[in-house]
Amino acid sequence: MLRVNEIFYSIQGESSKAGLPCVFVRLTYCNLRCSYCDTTYAFYEGTDFTIEEIINKVKQYNCNLVEVTGGEPLFQKESLDLMKSLCDEGFEVMLETGGSLPIADVDKRVMIIMDLKCPSSNMMKKNLYENINFLKPNDEVKFVIGTREDYEWSKEIISKYNLNEKCKVLFSVVFGQLEPITLVNWILEDKLNVRFQLQMHKYIWHPETKGV
């Protein structure tokens, strides 16, 4: 059984898959408390589902792209079995994880989008840097940046761990805290090899809307 907060059909708002229709399986619980968290409702609220029930609900949307997210999906160890089963069913599976729990046992067919928490998140101490060793070329590392300090720290981490040689690197702003144009200008000034992204769904729908 897995505790599920919501299952919904929308467009992918972030990552290199941004703009594509996607089914989201949002699992309950999180071991982090980021200062800018926009899904606090997933900390505790949810309903128990079997993996078979989740897959049957996903199939109803007739969409091949599925993202397992949270909360922190890896907080429930059964999420590993869910992702494997989704892959076995032929779905293209993505995992959105906060980067504090091990990814080594995630099915290799899953595309991982992993955060590395910047200083302003207040959760930087939770980063599990060993995870970098298990990233695949089609995985993505995401930095959510709210301050210049976050930006400079992110550059240091990219260099220290040679992230650009391991996978794609994504930069986005803390929504409502740092203006997108400011971050874009920093990236261009430094000729930084990263992909800038907006949380597209927050511009299409109201930022606090659930299930989109």
Poorly predicted runs of 5 or more residues: none
Mean pLDDT: 94
- N-to-C SSE string, H for helix and E for strand: EEEHEHEEEHHEHEH
**Judging from the principal axes of the Cα atoms, what is the shape?**
globular
How much of the sequence lies in strands comes to: 15-25%
What is the first-to-last residue Cα distance? Answer: 24 Å
Residue share in helices?
10-25%
Instruction: Figure out the total of helices.
Output: 6
Radius of gyration: 16 Å
**Multimerization status:** single chain
Could you say which structural class the secondary elements and strand pairing correspond to? Answer: alpha/beta
Strand order of the main beta sheet, please? Answer: 3-1-2-4-5-6-7-8-9
Largest sheet: 9 strands, mixed
Q: Got a strand count?
A: 9
Word description of this protein:
The chain is an alpha/beta fold. It contains 6 helices and 9 strands; from the N terminus they run βββαβαβββααβαβα. Strands 3-1-2-4-5-6-7-8-9 form a 9-stranded mixed beta sheet. Helix 2 links the parallel strand 4 and strand 5 (92-97). It is globular, with a radius of gyration of 16 Å. The mean pLDDT is 94.
Protein topology:
Layout (H helix, E strand, L loop, with lengths): L1 E10 L9 E7 L19 E3 L1 H9 L5 E5 L9 H10 L3 E6 L13 E5 L24 E6 L2 H13 L2 H4 L1 E6 L6 H11 L4 E2 L4 H4 L8
Parallel strand pairs: 2-4, 4-5, 5-6, 6-7, 7-8, 8-9
Antiparallel strand pairs: 1-2, 1-3
Summarize the structure.
The protein is an alpha/beta fold and 212 residues long. The chain is built from six helices and nine strands. The protein has helices at 51-59, 79-88, 148-160, 163-166, 180-190, 201-204, and strands spanning 2-11, 21-27, 47-49, 65-69, 92-97, 111-115, 140-145, 168-173, 195-196.
